Amino acid sequence: MLIRDAAADDLAGIFEIYDREVLHGTATFETVPKTPAERVEWLAAHRPAAHPAIVAVEPDHGSSRVLGWATLSAWSARCAYARAAENSVYVHLSARGRGVGRALLGELLVRARAANLAVIIARIAEGNPASVRLHESAGFETIGVMRRIGEKFGRVLDVRMMDLHLDGGLG
Fold first, then answer.
1. Number of C-beta neighbours around residue 6 at 10 A
2. What is the pLDDT of residues 10-57, one digit of tens each?
3. What is the DSSP pairing of strand 84-91 with strand 63-74?
4. Per the structure, how many domains does the chain have?
5. Nearest alpha-carbon partner for 63 in 15, 9, 101
6. Structural domain contains residue 170
7. 87-120 tens-digit pLDDT
8. CATH number, domain at 147?
9. How many CA atoms lie within 13 A of 48 on its CB side?
């Protein structure tokens, strides 16, 4: 497995993973898959310096199969929040349980520190215990629950908020 910056050639693999959650899961609250043009815009918005999109790939005879992907995204467009980012980690069903998510999150945290980000935030919808465990294993702590904030597939869902302070403190 190799972890690297996501490229345009990875978009099909990235969105194969993501669209499954869009259409059948609760790991995202999006309900409509992105168009090809929106996918390109999404990748362009994730610049490697502060808000990267990365992939875990498995080399396969000259091409690469996307096992999972992860991003850091701006928490808010308001300037005072520039020290914070939100993370996303998605792993292909066939690659779950193989350490792909842990490797992707670890690389995101290395990059977050290099970008001088101080706080990383995770929003995890109810029904995703593996994501909670992954974040806890990296040192994230639950800071609250947004009760009944989303609705998908006829279910009203809570979202757990977690954070990790890279700057060494809460003050």
1. 22
2. 999 999 999 999 999 999 999 999 999 999 999 999 988 889 999 999
3. antiparallel
4. 1
5. 9
6. no
7. 999 999 999 999 999 999 999 999 999 999 999 9
8. 3.40.630.30
9. 7
